[in-house]
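Q: Zinc-type alcohol dehydrogenase-like protein, please. Structure only.
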Amino acid sequence: MMKRLEYQQYGGPQEMRVAPFTLEAPAKGQVAVRVTAAAINPIDWKMRQGEMKIVTGKRFPRAMGMDLAGTVMAVGPGVTRFKVGDEVFDQSRFKQCGALGTAVIANDSALARKPANLDFDQAACLGTPGVTAWNALFDKAALAAGQHLFINGCMGAVGEAAVQLARGAGVRVSGTCSEADMERARALGVEHAYDYSSTDLSRLATRYDAVFDTAANLTMATGFGLLKPGGVLLDLHPTPGKFLRAVFDRRLKLVMCAPRADLLDQLARQAGDGALRLSIGKVAPLGDAIAIITALEQGQRLGGKAVIRMDRP
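A: Structure for Zinc-type alcohol dehydrogenase-like protein:
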């Protein structure tokens, strides 16, 4: 029997439940995946809270979870990139979600083959952080070797992915993190790691080609103040006001997670080569997902991604 994490209405953690469901057949361009592991992201509870209901709509129950790794069960008409039995990773459909369940339907363009030497837990973590970091650094900022990037929150999941992708492209990296994470940041190649709790970023003398605010707590004034002439501020939390400002101010680039096949294949290659790894703080069964999401939503930090394994009782 298939089961998944879902909710019957928008709201708080109390709306979540693990429930049985029937998996639809994959349509044209879609793939049915038996999920082995799924990673939890803040977007999961933000969607449940109704922050994106203008897109997700009013049909319930609604499934939860975006990032996954598993095995292809069936393919829909026109799918040629994958076959039954392929091990894959990345994202479920944005509007439908469903990665936090035993099986899910995904678009074939939002999947990549899992490298044989990458375990399912690590593969499940790559999706949202890896794609978002790539969209920011290369699609929006067009960073190149020798340039200098500042990441506000460089040891969060997106920040950690951005550090590794940037360093792999020859980009210099500095950024903020907690004092406890500084050693890990330096080990990944962060040149200057600043304690976010005690550093006044407006007083830094260095200027950067791009500032990536993964922690979403920089003021516009501080972010722009850290830029070199021609630099860009990468913002993960678009608002109507920011969209309007970005039209007139080319320094502001709004970043939204936008997976595509070539990008996912690049992430797969780098992960397979060992150049991209995300920290995992907890691995647990689906039955624990509600408690874990509730704790994360309330501010608990795990020191890495929370991964849900569907093969654990």
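A: Brief note, in case it's useful. The radius of gyration is 19 Å.
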